[in-house]
Amino acid sequence: MRRPTSLALLWFAVTGSAAAQNFDTVTVRVVPISQGIAMLVGAGGNLAVSWGKDATFVVDDQYAPLTEKIRAAIATLTANPVRFVLNTHYHGDHTGGNENLGKAGALIVAHDKVRVRMSSGQISRVFNRSVPASPTGALPVVTFTETVTFHLNGDEIQAFHVPPGHTDGDAVVWFKRSNVMHMGDLYFKDRYPFIDVDSGGDVEGVIGAAGRVLGMIDDNTKVIPGHGALSNKAELTRYRDMLVVARDRVKKLIAEGKTLDQITAAKPLADYDTTWGTGFINPQIFLRLLYVSLGGK
User: Fold this and answer.
1) pLDDT tens for residues 9-21?
2) For the chain, which terminus, N or C, has the lower number of CB atoms within 10 Å?
3) In a domain? residue 237
């Protein structure tokens, strides 16, 4: 993926403002995972789909203009309409299809704080941008505080809240029988993650969430990242380890009294930047997010 060249483009990529995007060229691709489980890849956050005798259950729904393409992709798996949508967090590239699917009869579910943030305008100081409140019809109808479990299609699907990481309302979704974990934007595969510090995000929470998931899964688990290709335990471990090193290096420089400009000039993550800094978040933005998250002034 070509690196965005401006803060405005970065903001679009990570928050899901659809105004400037040409969705006519987007293809929604189905990635089979196991019997009754697939990942959908299009524009925005990756979806998970569970289907079977009980209902069609979807995790996240990208942008509103892609709803018909998403429905068409799901129709290649099952004739049943989407009955449940679970949002992993509030950003528009994961919740943009809520209103369309809700009008068609789907029940929208998310953490309590997802509804709170979607109900009011949000501001990002990092990107100097604002996002308006979502339409009422896009808001989650059912919210939860810690966990919610669905017993569907012969599976036990548990969504659980984690301490603030990508945002303050993140949920990880565990398809227990299928041995599939959807991590939302707590996991950007092979890329520096967006830590939305203006929405309660915290690098410690991202690290903690990765550690929690690693303690739950095995070498056969399929891990769906918020962005990037289908993944696994070894790759998630590598991501977690990178974040630990990045946190420790920046934290040390902050403790030494270094300013953000001084830390940026020092390039403390130069050995990681070529590998990890080519996605939504470039090395300079990642350092800024770490600096704010770790208490830099």
Assistant:
1) 444 544 545 555 7
2) C
3) yes
